[in-house]
Amino acid sequence: MAGTRAGRGWRRVLGRLAALAAVTCLAIYLLAERALSHLDAITAAGPEAIARADHPLPAYEDWALFLTAQVLPLRQPGAAEVKPGRIFRDCPDCPEMVEIPAGFYLMGSPLFEWDRYRQIFSPRDWRTRIESANREGPRRLVHIARPFALSRYEITFAQWDAAQDDPAWADATELYPRKPVLTGVTGYQNRAVTMVNQFDARGFARWMSRHTGRPYRIPTEAEWEYAARAGTVTARPWGNAIGWNNATCMGCGDRWPEKRIGPVGLYAPNGFGLYDMIGNGREWVRDCFASYVAASITDGSAWVRPGCVFGVAKGESAYAEAWRNRSAYRVGPHLHNALEGGTIRLLREMD
User: Fold this and answer.
1) Model confidence over 165-202: pLDDT tens digits?
2) CATH homologous superfamily of domain 83-351?
3) Contact, 136 vs 41, CB < 8 A?
4) Is the bond leading into 147 cis (omega within 30 degrees of zero)?
5) Which of 46, 92, 163, 249 has the most C-beta neighbours closer than 10 Å?
6) Is 52 left (phi over 0), alpha (psi -120 to 50) or beta?
7) Angle made by CA atoms 137, 140, 145, in degrees to the nearest 5
């Protein structure tokens, strides 16, 4: 009898602890939803309200949102405001640019996003596999305080070659002119330029600044993912599944059968009106690579450090399997890596 009563007592204790845990989790979730509603209201109030909102949430809502976002997809703040941006050019032969509004978003992937842990099963040493487990986290709220513009398409071979032909290239970039060639291929001028490293990408941006008198650069990782997601929390801008004929990557469709970088703009754009943010070429961003996302950086700036050797490239490419072609996926090639696959997308700062 004593043993029976003790067993019932333990069950009651465990039941109460489970109830307390459930109530706590529900309270945290409701606070996270409340935080998103507050961010929705700031976004709806317009650019000035967004720019002023350096600390938009009280600490308890901020922590509730951070904790909940690690586990649940939730939704992006201000997603209802997403629409295709204004398209413009700074000169007749310049790349088309798309204006991206300021706002907030949840960067990275939740713990239970399918394919987040595929790196662990890659044929690498165990230390590298374990470090890869948190490559897309921790997920956190990022504040993009000012609007910017991204090139509507990846920079093409034609645009790159035109820059190399400009006598001002070397002076503007401190780089020698160089024209990569896709061996075994003819008529590839409308394909995304590849065989470019991060220094080439930054050089092209400096040349564009000199050419137009406007401030160009490559985006930070946070800016890139904000633009790629366009208000979505799914693994890709169009949904969680790769689907068919949504992007140029391995096993992703038959619209571009070559397993090499292809023409730009073959597929539907995302919510902001940007093409090929997923697939085709992995796009250089300004950050240094680490096996985690620096949670302390929440203002959209780049994570850089002295002696940086590896950079970050986003969006993956035609040379990668479907599971790698996701909004949160990040890879860290050497800054001088100029193999096929890497490409350029420009950012233009707005006045």
Assistant:
1) 999 999 999 999 999 999 988 888 999 999 999 999 99
2) paralog of FGE (formylglycine-generating enzyme) (3.90.1580.10)
3) no
4) no
5) 249
6) alpha
7) 130
